[in-house]
Design brief:
Shape: elongated
Distance between the termini: 66 Å
Helix content: over 70%
Strand content: under 5%
Number of domains: 1
Structural class: mainly alpha
Largest sheet: none
Number of strands: 0
Number of helices: 5
Length: 116
């Protein structure tokens, strides 16, 4: 994979995240990934997966072809990895999810009367 492609990849990944994230529920996905550190973890996750696959492809073929069809396949792969990464990074940052949920509830020291 050429140096120019590697430099552009984080921008492409961030753009794909920004286009895919609105299709997920606001809570917890959009709220958690609005945190820049968590979003950067997702970019790093996808980048690591793409670069790891590129190394495997290079070992098999001896080189990476950069024709239009290959770029479309790589972009589809980036989209898939964004979907997979959303779930994995969210799970790794579950403390952000729990904090976000706790903020929506009101707790009291009294026992619930709901059970009768």
């Amino acid at each position: 994979m050429s140096y120019a492609i590697v430099r552009v990849l984080p921008t492409v990944i961030a753009r794909e995240i920004d286009s895919i994230l609105p299709t997920y529920p606001p809570e917890p996905y959009q709220r958690v990934f609005a945190i820049s550190e968590v979003k950067q973890q997702l970019i790093d996750y996808v980048l690591k997966q793409v670069l790891g696959q590129a190394s495997i492809d290079r070992a098999r073929a001896g080189k990476i072809e950069s024709d239009r069809q290959d770029l479309d396949v790589q972009l589809d792969r980036v989209r898939l990895l964004v979907h997979l990464g959303l779930a994995e990074v969210l799970q790794d940052n579950s403390s952000h999810c729990q904090f976000a949920r706790i903020g929506n509830y009101r707790y009291s020291d009294e026992p619930s009367r709901w059970f009768g």
